[in-house]
Amino acid sequence: MTLMILHTRNASRRKHLAKAAETAHALGHRAIVVVEEPSWERDYVDEVYAAPTGDLQATVDRCVEIAKQESEPIAGVIAFVEHSVPAAAAVAEQLGLPYISPETAAKSRDKLSMRQAFANVGISQPSFALATSIEEAQQAAASSIGYPLVMKPIIGGGSMFVRRVDSPEELAEHFEEIRAGAWAGFDYDPLFFLKSRYSEGILLEEYLVGNEISVESYVQNGETTVVAVHDKPTPMDGPFFEETFYATPTELTGDTLERVKKFTALAHQGLGITQGATHTEFRVSASGEPYILETGARLGGGPIYQSVLLSTGIDMVEVLTKVSLGADADVVVDSERFRHVGFTLHFAERPGELLAVNGVESLEAGEDVSEVMIYRQIGEKVDVPPRVWQAHGHVIFTGDSREDVVHKQREINETLRFHVR
């Protein structure tokens, strides 16, 4: 039997593919990857197939063809990058394999449909509206959302083309730039066809004051298990919302943490997620009320996988692979044994040609540093938020306490430097 991994090229997913293949092999299965323009993926799995992953139907057709070519039947389908989730759902439906439905996969990427699904199950969330023109945006701001508000793409990710505005004047100044980037920046996405459905509009949301958290869970047989919660200790007040620092375990306790877990399970119910891993983000007010921002039907991005593993001892890729292949995940979450872990995401200070990255060797020599990974090559052109969704590198590290993790984060930020011209 064979595990099929639908993938969108992403340099931070190397360990994901390696662990998925290892788990599949332990269960007696092969592991293959389907990706556009394969490169490094060949080093981690049994076979790699090329497919036009920006085209949903073409991807499905190609995967059906691959299934016929494979010497063993396809036993399960998974995806580790959010852009691949709709394709994985469509392929699974076509091949008769367990996965979330294509409708659920679309809701987990379409932020307007997601908001409506959350409203249907009664989860606290910001007020929202669709705006296709500056006139519609100004009317929504005046009648229901207010200022400050946040503009964001409907199918975006990684805080790309997300911006806070504080006044009608700022809305008028920045609306068209965000609206254009919200679609042009994701023309490779399998859900790009939503551009016409929504008349090239963007999502407007009430800006909520509070700290952000992310929740890593998995669902099997419709039951939700929350594995880890990351805090984002660096204030994310705007105007842009690049994510640069995560720390776990969370400092949330009591009723607030229980409401986070309850809302996470409700989000799965509202979207129809009955199996697989999920990544859910909240803002938590000063009074302790969590407001849901979004839920992705996939593992958290970047270093979240390794951070959860270091902190809890639970390997979420192994869990997801087992769930996808119909095996029991068999997970025990023991918060008493959690370790303090942090990770930082790093960008160049400005766009340009990458000349050098300083501080890597110094950081790698630190006994508490688990990994330093640079995604970009010297000589490569790099851009900065809000025009990019992926950082240029990350550092994962452990600490003795939250205070220790915060202290080390500051040292890492002073040490790692990207130089561009």
From TrEMBL:
Gene3D superfamilies: 3.40.50.20, ATP-grasp fold, B domain (3.30.470.20)
Alphabetical keyword list: ATP-binding, Ligase, Nucleotide-binding
UniProt cross-references to Pfam families, sorted A to Z: ATP-grasp_4, ATPgrasp_N, LAL_C2
InterPro entries found in the cross-reference section: ATP-dep_AA_Ligase, ATP-grasp, BL00235/CARNS1_N, LAL_C2
UniProt domain ATP-grasp: residue ranges: 115-325
Keyword Transferase: no
Gene Ontology molecular function, alphabetical: ATP binding; ligase activity; metal ion binding
Protein name as it appears in the record: Biotin carboxylase
